[in-house]
Amino acid sequence: MGRKLISHLAFWCVFIIIFTIAWGYSAGIPGGVPVYFVAILMLIPVHIIYFYTAAYWIIPKYLNERSYLKLIFAFAGCSIAIAILFRADEIFIVDRYLFSKILEVNPKEKWQKLEGTIVEQFLKPYYIVNAFEQSNLIVWIAISIRFFKMWYEKKQVALQAELNFLKSQIHPHFLFNTLNNLYALTLSQSPKSPTIVLGLSDILRYMLYECHTETVLLNRDVEILESYISLEKIRYEERLDLTLSITGTLNNHRIAPLLMLPLVENAFKHGCSEMVEDPWVNIDIHILENRLIFKVSNGKTMYTTKNSDAHFGRIGLSNVQKRLDLLYKDRYHFNIYDEEEIFVAILDLDIGLEKATVEYLEKTK
């Protein structure tokens, strides 16, 4: 509420300053800018009444009801009423004030704008048109800004909803596999059971409670990746040949959550699970200044799987691509190489902006 009030006050202050300077230097009334500053203050209530009536009552009321004809008539009626109010403000307050400043310099001066009766002054066509133009100009600028703000806010809400949907599309096969493994190990009273429970709990906590922000700490995202890999290693036991390499400094970097996990998940689900002998996965995480280079490669059978799990795998990769387009547009390279016996995914990501944000927050503590 406070920020909104400040932004509105700032807008009207800017309007007053700009129009005072423009009017004060272009018109011929003695006193210049200071005199017109007072005149603008006399007219500003009309603009304020017009703007808040139109922007916060007429537009929301009839747009939400989709009563477009009523909206047009309401706007037309409001514009006419405000033009009359503006003209009345000029005749009874502003023009008399300006004319008094003219008389201070030249007591015998006459001003054509004030000639005639009140009705005659009201009905002068030139001043009626001028009142309509002046009363609408600033208000339509303000309404345009409000429409842009509304459009931007709706776009951000839609974008966030799409990102949340894409994040939720991680295929949960690992959860079911892990629970099955846990069940089997529990039956045999294996000492590995607590490790699976802790690893699974950490991953679920991360997904449910820590991924609602735009970015997370890179080292935390890598920790979850390592927890996931540990669970898969328990599943495959000694059959799996896995290499995880991390070079560079993870600290002071942030990244959008759950970008890397689907790529690793895909390697296990559509690589290792389909290889009867010698399944292998190589994972490389390399931090080079403000760049993250993430490479996942895995062996695969030479026959492309046609089942539903492969379909979900393609969806997972497609979702990663969509999130990258939304969050890191023009700041990443994502390449996939799908050969007969090997699958490779390489993500080259610029995380410099996120690092700059972290450094700024550290300095302002």
Task: Describe the model.
This protein has 11 helices and 7 strands. With 365 residues, it is of the alpha+beta class. The protein folds into 2 domains: 161 residues, no CATH class; 196 residues, Heat Shock Protein 90 (2-Layer Sandwich), CATH 3.30.565.10. The strands form 2 sheets. Strands 2-4-5-7-6 form a 5-stranded mixed β-sheet, with helices on one face. The chain has a two-stranded antiparallel ribbon with strand order 1-3. Helix 2 packs across helix 5, helix 5 packs antiparallel against helix 10 and helix 7 runs antiparallel to helix 8. 21% of the residues are buried. About 3% of the residues have low confidence.
Question: What spatial form do the alpha-carbon principal axes imply?
Answer: elongated
Do you know the CATH architecture of the largest domain?
Answer: 2-Layer Sandwich
Number of domains: 2
| Mean model confidence by pLDDT | 79
N-C termini distance: 25 Å
List low-pLDDT spans. Answer: 304-313
Q: Which range does the strand content fall in?
A: 5-15%
What Rg do the Cα atoms give?
A: 34 Å
* Largest β-sheet summary: 5 strands, mixed
